[in-house]
Amino acid sequence: MTNNKLKDIYNILYSHYGPQNWWPGDSPFEIMVGAILTQNTNWKNVEKAIANLKPYLDPFVLLNMDIDKLISLVRPSGFYKLKAQRLKNFLSFFVERYNGSIEEMKKTELGTMRQGLLSVPGIGMETCDSILLYALSKPVFVVDAYTKRIGVRHNIFGGNATYEGIQKIFEEGIKKDVYIYNEFHALLVKAGKENCKKRKPLCKTSPLEDLV
DNA sequence: TGCCAGGCCGGGT
DNA sequence: ACCCGGCATGGC
Questions:
Q1: What is the C-alpha separation between A12 and A187, in angstroms, rounded?
Q2: Could you read off the pLDDT of A132-177 as tens digits, one per residue?
Q3: Are A102 and A136 in contact (CB under 8 A)?
Q4: DSSP 3-state assignment of A30?
Q5: CB neighbourhood size of A157 (10 A)
Q6: What is the H or E stretch that residue A58 is in?
Q7: What's the CATH code, domain A28-135?
Q8: CA–C1' distance A121–B9 (Å)?
Q9: 3-class DSSP state for residue A205?
Q10: Cβ of residue A99 lies below 7 Å from strand C
Q11: What pTM did the predictor assign?
Q12: Which residues touch strand B (CB under 7 A)?
């Protein structure tokens, strides 16, 4: 069963904005780091932090780095003490369980991988799923605040829908395809930034306006 | 200038 | 099982 409305939304956004080619990042490891740093934070600020981290983008190097130094590097991304610790938490997990190897991690069964990531303090569902989809190319639909706002706005689901409820609707409503999951989420963020902000959720200029 | 950003956690109800 | 405050910098 595919949901035509979701397919329509995808097609409209894709035609309007074109491919987004996410995630912006030079390596899967950088994507993982970025996924943590971008929690409730403007991507522009994350870019600054990642620029600071560039010379040290290796799981072992970062794991062994003095916490105060790490804090100073991630500072521009905001919530810096919190995020430095969350990065450490993730790095411990990544090194202990997978020896800091993307390839090794990718061999794991998806459910196990997801459970493991979610057990890391500071990694919630969106961060976890972003890592799975964008760093590890796993077919997991990423739900975020924009996805929810736009979905409610277009009557795909109600305002009380949960993360996993929304995720299920998307995963069951469109073709299970990493490329589509990748682009769809990125397109929703793009559309959301332009038309579906917190204080003006009216989408007057949205390419989706006709659908409502 | 204030409001907001690609969340998550812990404590209170 | 929800709801809320805290976390913080920098862009527009």
A1: 10
A2: 999 999 999 999 999 999 999 899 999 999 999 999 999 999 999 9
A3: yes
A4: helix
A5: 16
A6: none
A7: 1.10.340.30
A8: 9
A9: coil
A10: no
A11: 0.95
A12: A 22-24, 34-35, 38-43, 45, 78-79, 82, 120-128, 130, 134, 144-146, 189, 193, 197-199
